[in-house]
Amino acid sequence: MAFGTIKNVRKVFGVSELGSRANEPVVALDDASFTFEKGELVALLGPSGCGKTTLLRIVAGLIAKTSGSVNIGGREVDSPVGDYGFVFQAPSLMPWRSVIDNVLFPMEILKRNDNAARARAVELLELVGLGSFHRARPHQLSGGMQQRVSLCRALIHKPNLLLMDEPFGALDELTRLEMNDLLLRVRKETGASVLFVTHSISEAVYLADKVIVFSRRPARVSQRIDVVLPSPRTQAVRFTPAFTQAERAASEALGVVPHVEAEAS
Amino acid sequence: MNARAITRVGYPLAGLVIILVAWTLACWLGRLPTVVLPTPDKVLYSFIKYFPMLMEEGWVTLKETLYGFGLALILGVPMAVAIANSRTLNLMFYPLLVALQSVPKVALAPIILVWLGPGLESKLAIAWLVAFFPIIVDTAAGLRSTPKELLELANSLNASRWQILTKVQFPAALPFVMTGAKVAITLAVIGAVIGEFVGSSEGLGFLLLTATSQLDTPLAFAALFALSLIGLLVYLLVEGVELLIAPWLPPAPERH
User: Fold this and answer.
1) Cβ–Cβ of B152/A62 closer than 8 Å?
2) Sequence-distant (≥ 6) Cβ neighbours of residue A232 within 8 angstroms
3) Which of A88, A109, A153, A94 is nearest to B175 (CA)?
């Protein structure tokens, strides 16, 4: 059995969940199914508002699904399990904590904030190139640096699953490429599975072993694309035919370019 | 002196000089008698002459202010936590709080005096009453505006409600609490003086009343001056505490 199985997950937000202005329920996610193996990086790709973020929160156990099943590591998820890492679009650091204390926040919550945790925090910060910024406050760092701290925070408790919600969406292109490579490196060192929400086709293809393409509302999985690229991936991979082909497949699935049957090559 | 120091010190000083000159000119040109508007030098003379008495009465007012403010802080923050975290409590008490806030505290002062007598307690109570509202409203607003992602992060780690409150919500609300505290402490000075006006035998408010009833306007102005010094002092005190416990706050102009 696969490490993670998402099966027929459906989410309808009721009127009460949506707040006072809504007058009818909204189908945020209509029938999402896919599986992934341990250590795989899965990109959830789709237009804005297609429910991929909702799916991520369902997998995290933060919101309840309407129907379907989520099984991670042999455990059915319907409430937070406490050992996933979460990276948001904004770095969401705590301005009152130093960089290292931000990284150690999950360990405090899990009551495992010991010397070993501290050593690991130092190691992680080293890994993302922030070795000399332990004592800095978040506001002293650039956006990209803050997001690296956020990544360390998500990894400190050795989660077996990393959930990333458009983590590099707010960064400039060059920083984003840099962060992509950093993520690939970090993933190799930690061996965690990653669910990565993005609306960038090239980012999805560059990072993922598998791209799950979502259609616009009603949001459902429209296609699963396996990305086979030479390993280790470097930026040069972007200019290979395999990369272009995968990008094309994803674009077709999104309806960005028309589908071409059996393209002559 | 560099340009920055000139801007920081020189400009306010220049402003003060302009006001003092205008004040003096108004007294001379309008031929205003001292009992209506004393010239600045007469006020200064009075301030120096009665300095020990001003200190003594000022100390009384300062004590009333700090006690009232302290009590507002001790009671206001836990109540804000309760209101921000419970929909039921919020619905039950928030409208009452707003209603209470719209009652002019001056109107309540005589009643409080009847209840608590002319001593320190009644002044403390009035200072508390005016300081309480900004603290509870700002703290509750701060607790409610915790960034959603931080709550999600804590929840994804199965954090307890106590952990969320102490490690996420409250620190995130601290800038709001401090903003409320700054408003509250200056209001507390006013509350204490209102209490002294309505009935007391000491404090700067009392001194102010006595001085005006004896037509000693320079002394009344000196007392006013002392009052504003107290206001400034307590404000700086709160700001100092803020720097001490929340040095991570961005510089003031960015905050609003």
Assistant:
1) yes
2) A184, A188
3) A94
Q: Which helix (H) or strand (E) holds B48?
A: helix B40-49
CB B188 within 8 A of CB B181: no
Q: How far is A62 from chain B (nearest CA, A)?
A: 6
| Domain B38-255 architecture | Orthogonal Bundle (1.10)
Nearest by CB to A90, from B149, B171, B172: name it.
Answer: B149
Q: What is the DSSP letter of B10?
A: I
CB environment B192-208: b (16+ within 10 A), e (fewer)? bbbbbbbbbebbbbbbb
pTM for this entry: 0.83
Reported ipTM: 0.88
Please name the residue that has the structure tokens 């040095």.
B247
The closest alpha carbon to A194, from A3, A6, A43, A35, belongs to A43
Q: Which residues of B fall within a CB distance of 8 Å from A82?
A: 156-158
Query: Per residue in A185-218, pLDDT tens?
Result: 888 888 889 999 998 999 999 999 999 999 876 6
3-state class of A186 per DSSP? Answer: helix
Q: How far is A155 from chain B (nearest CA, A)?
A: 12
Residue with tokens 């509302």: A217
Interchain contact, A94 vs B150, CB within 8 Å: yes
| Number of other CB atoms surrounding residue A145 within 10 Å | 19
